[in-house]
Design goal:
The chain is mainly β and 158 residues long. The protein is built from one helix and eight strands. The longest helix has 10 residues.
């Protein structure tokens, strides 16, 4: 069995750009920056940043495009995909992370404006997971109330 799984937590480098495919399906793309801190051979603290191209399809693209903005933290799960095309006779490549699932970062969910922490987006997680402590208008205009739960940081597996 083979495995192609990516887990990233970082900050958006630009606002999500929403487009529609010829099939009508929504697609969002944005950049995500991650960093790591380490000590070099001289013992000096160093920081290295990586920049990732992120692509999201369908309902997740709509949700992420609506609620995420440049600078906001986000956790994404997905897979690595490399595309290629010819441009003026030269083969071009682009490696992207295709998102399967995501979670809002530590500064809060869609309507908290920077307070709170770690809510899931509606429809962004597996069907068994419910959004926590937030309310969002449903398509019919009524508001859905989700239960508020305390999150113990020690329960988070990463």
């Amino acid at each position: 069995m083979y495995l192609n799984k990516v887990l990233l937590y970082g900050n958006l480098t630009r606002d999500p750009e929403i487009r529609a495919l010829p099939s009508g399906q929504q697609v969002a793309s944005f950049g995500l920056a991650t960093n790591r801190t380490f000590k070099d051979k001289n013992g000096a603290q160093q920081e290295q940043s990586e920049f990732h191209n992120i692509v999201v399809f369908g309902r997740l693209a709509e949700v992420m495009g609506q609620y995420l903005k440049k600078g906001r933290p986000v956790y994404v799960e997905g897979r690595i995909q490399t595309r290629s095309w010819d441009k003026e006779g030269v083969k071009q490549y682009r490696t992207e992370i295709v998102v399967d699932n995501f979670q809002f970062g530590a500064d809060g969910g869609p309507s908290r404006g920077g307070a709170g922490g770690g809510e899931r987006a509606p429809g962004a997680s597996r069907p068994s997971a419910e959004p926590m402590g937030d309310s969002m208008p449903a398509s019919g205009g009524e508001e859905i109330q989700y239960p508020s739960e305390d999150i113990n940081p020690e329960d988070i597996p990463f």
